Amino acid sequence: MDNHQKDIVILAIESSCDDTSAAVLRDGILLSNVTASQAVHEQYGGVVPELASRAHEQNIVPVVDAALKRAGVEKEQLTAIAFTRGPGLMGSLLVGVNFAKGLALALGIPLVEVNHLQGHVLAHFIKENGDETAPPFPFLCLLVSGGNSQIVKVNAYNDMEIIGQTIDDAAGEAIDKCSKVMGLGYPGGPVIDRLARQGNPEAYHFAKPNIPGYDYSFSGLKTSFLYSLRDWLKDDADFIEHHKEDLAASLERTVVDILMKKLRMAVKDTCIKHVAVAGGVSANNGLRNAFRDHAQRYGWTIYIPKFSYTTDNAAMIGIAGFFKYQDHDFCDINAPAFARVG
């Protein structure tokens, strides 16, 4: 890099759900990534939007301050601010969006908007020391989280085509709801993952959908799980307590089978063998193991993110913002947040 070119230093902000996160990147290399999670929702069995936005208001200044300090960067050195514009919870998004706008105006630097879901896909391009391997374009990405289950054909950082998606519940949502029915608390994903490691995945069989193409459906699985549980509980009031490991393993196995079946179809039809996984559910060990198994069995080259980049985080927003900044793809100060795509 010649001496006349200034470093590109980006502050990224993510506040789409219940995590307040800020990250700082210099020339695409991550310097800091700070996240404050909200424990307040556990007692309600799900994210309460009003409580989430209030917690973001309390967290945003200390989180941004910590990210800048850890990165050793003064706010006057920032080149741009990247932020999650949507989709997500409107109250939560507004806190991050308005903070980003206010700071960008005060510093006289450009704003870069990032789509939250595209951020998850681009988490594979986060660099901490510059020698990480990112997938080559085009690649397929299975994006699985509490709110989304999609197969995305990624042609370029700014050219993503959703070729399959859930027509009802997302995979993470189905797992959380089944966990709630079992009385295991919220969020259910990590609990089911932990119990599944000790259970028999073949113990029980639940309904798998028959949806054409690459689209997903998880509502049938959820209903099947619910009805099966209800019948078993009639015969044994302590059925869940006695069989929770096997139930968790069988549920996880079914979800992973549904996800991988469509992904195998997509790989076969597109002939793209570079395959990534992203989103909160990509932290699940059963899904990670299935990816490794498919890599061996079908010759896929797989990309599995670090655990810290599976959940909502600002580092992924920062790398997406860095790519857009290089293309001078800036955002108007009046651009509103959006809760849904479309």
3D architecture notes:
The chain is of the alpha/beta class and 342 residues long. It folds into two domains: 140 residues, ATPase, nucleotide binding domain (Nucleotidyltransferase, domain 5, 2-Layer Sandwich), CATH 3.30.420.40; 169 residues, Nucleotidyltransferase, domain 5 (2-Layer Sandwich), CATH 3.30.420. The chain has a five-stranded mixed β-sheet with strand order 3-2-1-4-5, sandwiched between helices. A five-stranded mixed β-sheet has the order 8-7-6-9-10, with helices on both faces. A hairpin with a 4-residue loop joins β1 and β2.
Number of helices: 9
How far the N terminus sits from the C terminus, by CA atoms, comes to: 40 Å
Tell me the overall shape: globular
Please bin the fraction of helical residues: 40-55%
Corresponding CATH architecture of the largest domain: 2-Layer Sandwich
* CATH homologous superfamily caption of the largest domain: ATPase, nucleotide binding domain
Residue fraction in strands: 15-25%
Alpha-carbon Rg, integer: 21 Å
Q: Major sheet: order of its strands?
A: 3-2-1-4-5
Structural class: alpha/beta
Q: What order do the helices and strands follow?
A: EEEHEHEHEEEHHHHEHEH
Low-confidence runs of at least 5 consecutive residues: none
Compact description:
With 342 residues, the chain is an alpha/beta fold. It has helices at 49-71, 90-107, 116-122, 171-181, 188-196, 219-235, 239-270, 285-298, 314-326; strands at residues 9-14, 19-26, 29-37, 80-86, 111-115, 139-144, 149-156, 159-165, 274-278, 301-303.
